[in-house]
Amino acid sequence: MTQTDLPADLQSRGHDWASPRARANVARRRRSETVLRVVGLGAILLAFLMLGILLWTLISQGSLAFRQTHITLNVPVAAEHVDPADPAKGNYRRVIAAAMSETFPEADTTEQRALSKILSNQAQFVVRDKVVADPGLIGNEVRIRVPVSDPYDQLAKGQVDTTSAAETRRLSDVEIANFRALEEQGLISKPLNWALVTANDSRFPELAGLKGAIVGSAYALLICFLISFPLGIGAAIYLEEFAPRNRLSDVIEVNINNLAAVPSIVFGLLALAVFLGWFGMPRGAPFVGGLTLALMTLPTIIIAARNALKAVPPSIREAALGVGASKQQVVFGHVLPLAMPGILTGTIIGLAQALGETAPLLLIGMNAFVTSTPATPFDASTALPTQIFIWADSPERGFTSRTSAAILVLLGFLVMMNALAIFLRNRFERRW
Amino acid sequence: MMNVMTRTEAEVGAGEQIKVEARDVNVFYGDKQAIRDVSVDILDRTVTAFIGPSGCGKSTFLRCINRMNDTIDSSRVSGLITLDGQDIYARDLDPVQLRARVGMVFQKPNPFPKSIYDNVAYGPRIHGLVRDKAETDAVVERALRDAALWDEVRDRLQEPGTSLSGGQQQRLCIARAVATQPEVLLMDEPCSALDPIATAQVEELIDALRQEFSVVIVTHSMQQAARVSQKTAFFHLGNLVEFGDTDDIFTRPKDPRTESYISGRIG
Ligand SMILES: Nc1ncnc2c1ncn2[C@@H]1O[C@H](COP(=O)(O)OP(=O)(O)OP(=O)(O)O)[C@@H](O)[C@H]1O
Ligand SMILES: [Mg+2]
């Protein structure tokens, strides 16, 4: 039977796959597939380009801070400056000045004061510590290797344009000449800048390091993990496995999802009001930072854990219930172990977010200038992102490159955490 | 024609005691009624087959007997079901213990993602049926032998249960269910994933289990129902249309719907 409203080429049952219409159809499909592929590829390339530019700027800036210009100097410790009975009280500033005038015998007094400035402020304390440790050095020479101060560090790294007008740079022609003379004597070296991670913050860029910030961040993350991980898993298990489905649990669910989207600065304000205001906790303590970050991380972990629990196939629960396992045995013996890789991944991603979080930490005072490593989570300290914030705000040239270097350190930690997440996921992923 | 096994008088006499009694059972999923006024007696040491077209409520009714429907939020059960005369929906009855007494094998094989050994040992362990490793070993071996799986897995007990083939997995699930020594064993299409040889083995197992347990089996295969069961219940659109001796159902069905189903006209 023929259907009269069918077009002519569809009247017969067999389709002609070589007809112009069929070919046009194939061509159209291929075209749209190509377009989609090109657009997708373009998007990825663009993303890589952006990432490349970001990393390139950071590395080209930050790599300067991975080396630090040092000066090696023989310092004669004269008894006139240091009393052998009380070596700690000696006038080490004069000791250093004397050492420099020995290196530049023809310099006059004003020039000598400038010469001392080549060395970092730390030099006198390095000599003092050596002499205090071994008072026998008084009357002899001490060999020290200390950082040079920031302007000379920049000069050694080629960051000073020596051809520009003298008034526009921080170093005069004489000062530059002096430094070049030191370089010619082979006293200047540029070793790897371990101080970047082994020293605490300092007013002087050549001395400043991230140790306090790293330890502060570690304490804060530890507190954050210890609070948000068990609480998050507990909440997720209760909501997913035990809570009755009703209006109240819907409200809770919506609220948790919303909490995950609350700007972090709001959590900072909350922490400021509650932890510092009501409970009177100390300002700038990693413990408080950890509590604040836990507030932020909790919704992320709850959501990740609930999704991981949901993803466990119902057949596994039925199997366990079917042999007479109780609800609790099902959850803790079967569902939770299967959900664990997903929960861990979500937790680590949440912690990585927390590690990079700046705003709430600024509000609770973790941006103070602290020159010591926190011994406990209750001592004031900075965290990595707030340290970056502080350094980015400092005018000295040395801090510019150190800011980029600090960002690279932070990124390094983030990459490590994400790698750990991927490792855990692959390691514990189970088939069913 | 149907191949109906004839049973000896002794076999009939063995299973006249009522194990599970259902009276006017209704099951709802939300507003939708899946089971209507079903009353049925499941005898001790007897194999009862549930047959009927897809979606008629066989699985639903089966899951009432060990209260697995409790785990579905939308489901509601009314009526009376007793096990050894005791109301299983009574307030003071512990559904967890009930499920240890009424074992279940599911339509789709669902081994735990654990070793073969741990799959079988799980039930006996959580119910405290075994005291030490030696006892567990013995129980695991007996269950695997019961499920006709022992010879295939005896050398690889520590391998994951999920690494077995579909048919082996289903027999592993049967082993897991019989390991807790249930009084009633509910099997929801246990052979739907099995080849004819494995099916024959499972049917042999069912016949052997009948010596100790009462077995309820859901099946889409008329031949299987006829081969393994002594009693057959025919469900249609949530109603229990006909229930009686398997011989009678397959040779002298009383209801025209039963007749047309077993002769392949509805389903
Ligand atoms: N979890 C559920 N929620 C809502 N409705 C359900 C649910 N499970 C089953 N039903 C409905 O109950 C009716 C009976 O389903 P049931 O699974 O008991 O059928 P069945 O006889 O086992 O079918 P099959 O032979 O295909 O396994 C069907 O109409 C089905 O749609
Ligand atoms: Mg079914």
Task: Put the structure in a nutshell.
Chain A is built from 16 helices and 3 strands.
Helical fraction of chain A:
55-70%
Low-confidence stretches of chain B: 1-13
The rounded distance between the terminal residues' Cα atoms of chain B is: 18 Å
Order of helices and strands of chain A: HEHHHEHHEHHHHHHHHHH
- pLDDT < 50 stretches of chain A: none
Describe the structure.
The complex is a heterodimer of chains A (432) and B (267). In chain A, 62% of the residues lie in helices and 4% in strands. Chain A is mainly alpha-helical and 432 residues long. Chain A has a 3-stranded antiparallel β-sheet. In chain A, helix 1 (20-62) crosses helix 16 (397-428), helix 2 crosses helix 4 (123-133) and helix 8 runs parallel beside helix 11 (286-310). Chain B has a domain at 16-110 and 184-262: P-loop containing nucleotide triphosphate hydrolases (Rossmann fold). Chain B contains 11 helices and 10 strands. In chain B, the strands form 2 sheets. Chain B has a 6-stranded mixed β-sheet with strand order 6-7-8-3-9-10, sandwiched between helices. A 4-stranded antiparallel β-sheet of chain B has the order 2-1-4-5, with helices on one face. In chain B, helix 4 (116-126) runs parallel beside helix 7 (166-179). The longest helix of chain B has 14 residues, at 133-146. The radius of gyration of chain B is 18 Å and the shape is globular. The A-B interface holds A 245, 313, 315-326, 329, 333-334, 338, 430-432 and B 66, 68, 71, 73, 96-101, 103-106, 108, 110-113, 122-123, 126-127, 160, 162, 173, 176-177, 179-180. The complex binds adenosine-5'-triphosphate and magnesium ion. Magnesium ion (MG) binds at residues 58-59, 107, 188 of chain B. Adenosine-5'-triphosphate binds at residues 29, 34, 52, 54-60, 72, 74 of chain B.
